[in-house]
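debug: dumping io for the single-chain case to check the tokenizer round-trip. Nothing else runs in this session.
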Amino acid sequence: MKKFQHSVSTSVESTIKAFALLVASACTLMANGQTREISLQFAKAQEAEGCKMYVRPLVTKGEAELVEMTSEGTTYSATVATSPEGLYSVTCIRDGAQIFGTISLGKGGGAAKVAVQTAGYCLMATDTPDNKALGSYAQCEAQGLMALWTPGRTADELRTIVTSFEQKADSVVKAYRCTARVEKYVRMWAYTSAYNAYTYVPNILGCKPSEVPFGIEEVMDRPERVMDSPLAATFPIAYQLIDRFMPRGATLSEQMDWLYGNFKCEDIINKVGGAALDKYVARYDYAGKYEQGLAELEAVTAKYALDGKYVRKFRANRVTIPGNPFPEGLTFTDAEGKTHTIDELRGKYVYIDLWASWCGPCCKEVPHLQALEKELQNDGVVFVSISIDAKEEPWKKKMEALQMRGNQWHDPKGLLGQALNVQGIPFFVIYDREGRLLQYNAPRPSHPSLKTMLEGL
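debug: decoded output
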């Protein structure tokens, strides 16, 4: 099992991190409106020795931070925000290993003291049928994952293990007759266990995901039958899991129809649908079928009353289409304060490096760019580095440190990046002799293909 390395330090960094954790926790408490004092008491003194304990309320809205518990003898305590589901995740770090558990304290606030114990990599309470069910399934999951990674497993054996998680959950909830709330949680937990196990299979078999001899639909139930609930938000992997079942090779309209046709929980629809829309906007071939893509996105947005930000971003990405002219009205200054425009380079192919002095990857590309400028055998290509540093001083200092010469321009407001819808730097783009976009997101100077490309212009 994977171990978590934890070291105790009195350094300034540790103090800052601890303070940040306290602030985050306090913000969580204030946002929640209710708090709960939780005390976990180990039955055996040796189990409590050398532990660091953390607790986090499981919430369906937003995120809750881990709160470190204080110890007094064999008892660990902390004040945390109240979980609307009455469920709390506990992490115990001992001897460099992480031990996990989920405990049920019932809904509402107030103090709660529970006896806990550890078994392998699991921490559990056994005071109620709910906690017995949670602890029992935790052990089932741990055993299943360990069995999965046993050397020499065949594909058939792996398939049996993946399907066993939901079967074990069924046995657990029946054996302990837990509440409906905890039963739903355990079944979701088992569902995510099965998904995680399935994603490990390619590594275990040494094959590509597409070569796994059994499909995910063969070993897992449909997600809408298990995860269509706000409670799914307590599992970080839930949205990725649901997305995995979304029709592949389908149009955006077909994907959204599948989502809205199978799920009722707004949180799931918004999260999974938002991810699908972001992916659509980011990966669309704007140079190929811009109008068709825009029409489909607008139709989906209207049909399901979606946020118009996706359409706006799609339209903004039109600047990535080859042949578009350089953004109008932009001027830049050099280190001496002289004003420049892209028009003065008309008649040349222009390779633009958008960078900043504080950007490590940007600075690493500078030596490669300098070497390329010296070695390139094509007088028809000119290089321009445009800094988006907010102030001149760091820009000039970095230029001097890196011995940057040639066309060094300054764009303190980042207007070119905004106009080109650039999401991060370093960013490279090439314009042709007439000032029209030739290649958006061009290769970096360190990429072997760039020199050949530029010499071929």
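debug: round-trip ok. The CA atoms of residues 192 and 238 lie 7 Å apart.
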